Amino acid sequence: MPRAAIGVDLGGSHVLAAVVDEGGEIHAKFEREIEDRAPAAVVDALAEVVRSAVAATRYDVVGIGIGSPGNVDPASGTIRFSPNFGWTDVPLGARVRDAFPKYQVFVANDARCATLGEYVHGVGRGTRDFVLLTLGTGIGGGIVVNGAVALGFQVGAGEIGHHQIRPDGGFICGCGKVGCFEAQASGTGLLRHAFRVAPSFPRSMLLDPPPVKDKDKVGDDARTWRDRLGSKRIRKAAQAGDAHALAAWNAFCDDLALGLANVIAFVNPEVIALGGGVSSGGDFLLDRVKPLVEVRTTMVPRGTTRIVRATLGNDAGAVGAATAAMRGGLVAQLPAAVPA
Q1: Which H, E and C letters describe 254-311, residue by residue?
Q2: Domain boundaries, the chain
Q3: What residues contact residue 276 under an 8 Å CB cut-off, 6+ apart?
Q4: Model confidence over 29-79: pLDDT tens digits?
Q5: Hey, do 3-118+315-327 and 125-311 end up sharing a CATH topology, with the first three levels equal?
Q6: Is the per-residue pLDDT at 227 higher than 80?
Q7: Range with the lowest mean pLDDT among 6-10, 56-60, 157-161, 205-209?
Q8: CA distance linking residue 22 with residue 2, whole number of Å
Q9: Which helix (H) or strand (E) holds 91?
Q10: Which percentage of the chain shows pLDDT scores above 90?
Q11: Are 286 and 273 in contact (CB under 8 A)?
Q12: Would the N or C end of the chain have less CB density within 10 A of its end CB?
């Protein structure tokens, strides 16, 4: 019977479980919203979608892999700290093992799981040194060095989003520092750039609320409209030639390029893959960013690092978590078979 694993992508607002075979193909997915972030409630939601996934497959399920935000003890699966959930020392692995005693359970950081998925089954295949960056509300990702996922002394390696690129005058990051790569070059960063340059474009319609019929709701509608202003709308306005959006987009791309050039200096990868919602800009993003990266690349031969779009999209986390479960950890490259 062919083998598969259940890959779980645990997010701050939802949990997804997928049946993933050894080739990285997804055969079924189940998702549930998370309304209560208390550990017991999250485990209940996680268990529900995992049970649905197990029931939906005829594959031989060999384990359950969970990608969770935060710093994770890989031996026990304990979440040492997760700002997304406000957790400290939560024994997530033990609680899931209690719910599913039949299966091996592996827990790792969600971004590192996504990196493993993209490396083994996505655009990273065939490389030895690889970096994944997911550009969403924040910046996640991970690093593969010489065929191994970099974990670090306390399993904290790969937090690329929290190196500072604008310590003077940058945006305040959720981690408390100023000018982190995540604060400047995530989807949230693009939105912040749009607001920062807005005073220079007093006639810009990008931030204007639409007309409303009920004048008593103007304030509420205006706030809602500003809340709906996201990276996709700014990018589309920039592509259409809107001056305000272009100014924000160019500032964002400049910060993104600065961080990418630093990544090249840090680890000299063969490929940097960009995932997440902002990467949907495709060539409009890459054509702007690549020359800016080249200008800032000095100690590594220019043009030798390929910057591309990731290919697994939102499935990378679940695919990577399932791959980790099948391999017994964040194993990027399997050892060569020993001849009989």
Answers
A1: HHHHHHHHHHHHHHCCCEEEEECHHHHHCHHHHHHHHHHHHHHCCCCCCCCCEEEECC
A2: 3-118+315-327, 125-311
A3: 133, 134, 135, 136, 139, 140, 187
A4: 999 999 999 999 999 999 999 999 999 999 999 999 999 999 999 899 999
A5: yes
A6: no
A7: 205-209
A8: 8
A9: none
A10: 82
A11: no
A12: C
**CA 47/CA 53 separation, integer angstroms:** 10
Structure tokens at 187: 């989807």
pLDDT over 70 for what percent of the chain?
92
Q: Backbone dihedral region of 105: left (phi > 0), alpha (psi from -120 to 50 degrees) or beta? A: beta
Plot region of 91 (φ>0 → left; ψ -120 to 50 → alpha; else → beta): beta
The CA–CA distances, whole Å, from 156 to 2, 93, 162, 197 equal 34, 18, 11, 35
Q: 103 near 59, Cβ under 8 Å?
A: no
For the chain, state the CA radius of gyration.
Answer: 21
- CATH number belonging to domain 3-118+315-327: 3.30.420.40
Look up the pTM and report it. 0.90
What class is the 125-311 domain?
Answer: alpha beta
Q: Which tokens sit at 131?
A: 């970096």
Q: What is the DSSP letter of 137?
A: S
Which pLDDT value is given to residue 213?
57
Nearest to 45 by CA among 35, 55, 53: 35
Q: Considering all CA atoms of the chain, what is the largest pairwise distance in Å, rounded to the nearest integer? A: 80
Cβ-based neighbour number of residue 141 at 10 Å? 26
